[in-house]
Write a structure and sequence with these properties.
The protein is mostly helical. It contains four helices and two strands; from the N terminus they run ββαααα.
Length: 92
């Protein structure tokens, strides 16, 4: 990171310092004790998709393996029944 000293002796950074805050990832389905993920609720399933319509991976959402499979199955079922789009530009 490059720093510049001004005439008054003040140090200014060209790029702002990056402060990494690691949040604890958790599975929201385990926390809410959900047993079933409903494929008929596209608004809820949109939380697990990006702007292009792709399903977000576990490392980004923090979902456990068991529930990630259920989410992907529900998204695919909703797409097949035309409740959600397969591809989309700027869905959110």
């Amino acid at each position: 990171m490059a720093a510049v000293t001004t005439d008054s002796g003040e140090i200014r950074y060209l790029n702002p310092p990056v402060l990494e805050v690691d949040r604890e990832k958790y599975c929201r389905f385990k926390k809410m004790r959900m047993k079933h993920i409903d494929y008929k609720d596209p608004d809820f399933l949109m939380r697990f998709m990006n702007e292009q319509g792709k399903i977000l991976p576990r490392r980004l959402t923090g979902t456990s393996v068991k529930y990630q499979r259920k989410v992907s199955r529900a998204v695919k079922r909703a797409r097949h029944l035309a409740l959600m789009t397969f591809v989309g530009d700027m869905l959110k």
